[in-house]
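Re: your question from the hallway

Yes, I did run it. Sequences:
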Amino acid sequence: MDQRQKEIDNLKDYKYGFSTDIESTKAPKGLNEEVIKFISNIKKEPKWMLDFRLKAFERFKQLKEPDWQKPKYPKIDYQDLYYYSAPKSMNDKPKSLDELDPKLLETYKKLGIPLQEQARLNGIAVDAVFDSVSVATTFREELSKLGIIFCPISEAIQNHPELVKKYLGSVIPTTDHFFATLNSAVFTDGSFAYIPEGVRCPMELSTYFRINASNTGQFERTLIVADKGSYVSYLEGCTAPMRDENQLHAANVELIALDDAEIKYSTVQNWYPGDKDGKGGIYNFVTKRGLCKGKNSKISWTQVETGSAITWKYPSCILKGENSVGEFYSIAITNNHQKADTGTKMIHLGKNTKSKIISKGISAGSSDMTYRGLVDISSKASNSNNYTQCDSLLMGNKCGAHTVPYIKNKNSESNIAHEATTSKISEEQLFYCQQRGLSAEEAVGLIVNGFCKEVLQQLPMEFAVEAQKLVGISLEGSVG
Amino acid sequence: MKEQVKKDFDNVIKNLSLSQRDIEIKQFYLDNFINRGFPNRREEDWKFSDLNQIIKKNIGELSFYNDYTSTNKVDTSVFVDGLEHNKIVFINGRIEKIDFDYEKKDQIEIIDQSETINKSSNNNSLSDLNNAFTNKSFKIVVKNGYQFEKPLIIYHTTNSKIWSKNINLRLDFKLDKDSSLRLVDLFNDTSEKNFLNIFYNFDLKENAVLKNFKIDKFENRNIKYSYNNIEQDKNSTSETFILSSGSNFFKNEINCNLKGEYSSAFVNGILSLNNDKHHEIRTIINHLTENTKSYQLIKSVLEDSSKAAYQGKIFVNSEAQKTDGYQLSKAILLNKNSEFNAKPELEIYADDVKCSHGSASGSLNEDSIFYLMSRGLNYHQSRELLINGFLLDVVEKITDSEIKNLIKNMIGIKE
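Structure:
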């Protein structure tokens, strides 16, 4: 009861901080081959999938946890985590939304994602991932008419093994870094999307992640394949209940764009950031990587990072196809004791490839923010171009803002331009706004929104409004 | 390498009459160095230049013992003409001449501190190597209010007597209140395949002005590392100019601590490389108090299969409000085999600051060449003109007109 009351009190700060009492099935605590076999078994996976996992686990055992990042965190005991947690009612998977556990539906309603309504209204196709499993995917029939496959990845492994087998691990191999490899070994669910040749996906595809159970790590895997000449816009949102302990979230996202295809991937990340004293919160260690495999392909990442105790991720583009384009738009806001080390990697391999990076960082309170990025133009990538701009805004003298770009140019016909600035909100701008009758807080909100505008514009409409509000909420109490 | 280092170290110690304690200290640094070896790419600061590999590839086995008992004849032909100056001459790492002819003797103090070991440290194994092997080290003190009349030129000369040697040097400078010093480091090598490891320490008191010009112009196959540590008190100014061009490999590191209010640091550099040369400039400017200023401009022109790297860091701690930090690096790649790497870094903990950096790299602008050619220049001339203009920008930042002209003549930039 006490705990409940505390949570309700906390709700005032983080409105997604509730947890839902849903019975869940968990794998035994700890990380070992048995647990991986358990996960694979419960998912009724074919043998090649289990082999994939075990191969990753073999490799994982040899890897050391990296420690070069700016935000340090207490050591995670990987044996003290649950690697699988699923709502019990999901054991017999419902066939339609009507059969879903009403509590689950309620949870998603609270989150502002009414699954049922969206099934009726024309809007966004949602794949909702609750703890480790996908609970509902809407609009599937309509999408399948166009040949688009949009389903939980565990289903895709059963129903479309040829696609999954071909592309899974092709961008983030099982031999990648520590957290990516951990994910390859124990990932439980996630979304899979395949857009067939020449199809322009008529609606936004969306995944909503939610961590509910405590002591669980969430490991989802998202795989999006855009076949020749197709287009898809994909949204990702995430929330978690407030808990005193830190929770690990290590997802992998792989994007593959073939000839002339375009993928737009937007994230509004609002995991629980911990309380005002930096207690609790999510460790968001995510690997996101896109491969522009075909000619004229394009991958664009847009992220609004306001949550998590620690955000540590670098959505990257490998520009392999000729004339391919990579873009990265990011707003990262840290407040209180949040820490972020984020940025992107643009790896130019093909001729005439172009990339653009716009990163806006805002730090307030006692938070710390780092932009870390890599632009690498290989010797074969003639005529390539990169433009990078990263601006940081500081509020108060207890926070930090850092920029660590790595710039490598091995091609004399290619150009790289990079600029970065760090400053605070100018007194003149504040004065001007206040003089017109805005309060200090409103004025800051307005200026910050202007500062972020370039990135906010890249978001799909529904998300842009949410993101704009989030920017305001995240900075509440940081002025004055 | 281990055996060689140990053997050479014993040889060095034998020839020095050191106290037991000093030997122990040196032994400590030697052990540190042996444990860590030469820096390699696994170390973040050496990511772009793997010194271990470079030494292995270009020199092979190094030996660390140098015979400093016999003197070398000073070759006066290397001296700079047409500029009156004071001299310190190093030949193969041995001080052969100290000459402060143009200065008031009582205003300068030269302290031989070979006996007392004061450690210099920059967190890499090269400082351990330097601490273990330097056997002659001077401290030059410029006294209160004294302004050097003429520049001081330090000649770093090596000749063909040495081969596959490691040479360690160390100098300390203290500029007292209101003093000033113009210091030129001129590298002049006829030797090949040696590794020079140079540490300078500057202590600038209130209102002191230091201008340091490091000129590595003459073609040679040596490998060099130079580390400048500059401590700055209130109102002091340091200006460092680096011309990095002649050696096979050269890494210049500048570490500057702006400890006093209104102190400022300027670092300007040119990396002009051809063949398979590989040079790097790394700067760390620490803004530690209010109202400090730093400005950095690094330009590179890369031909053939040369490689340049620039790592610049501006650090601003939480007390250093009103900091002004600026950093710009630009590179022109002239050949498809050339490579430019940069890591311009900002680490900022104070909010009322103005910090920015920019980095650009690419090819010569064909439109500009077309413009010049349409005015009657040939392709070669147009190219030359554009490159000269590009580099002149940095040379023009030099605030001392005498030395500016000297450097202009040296690199053949015509106005």
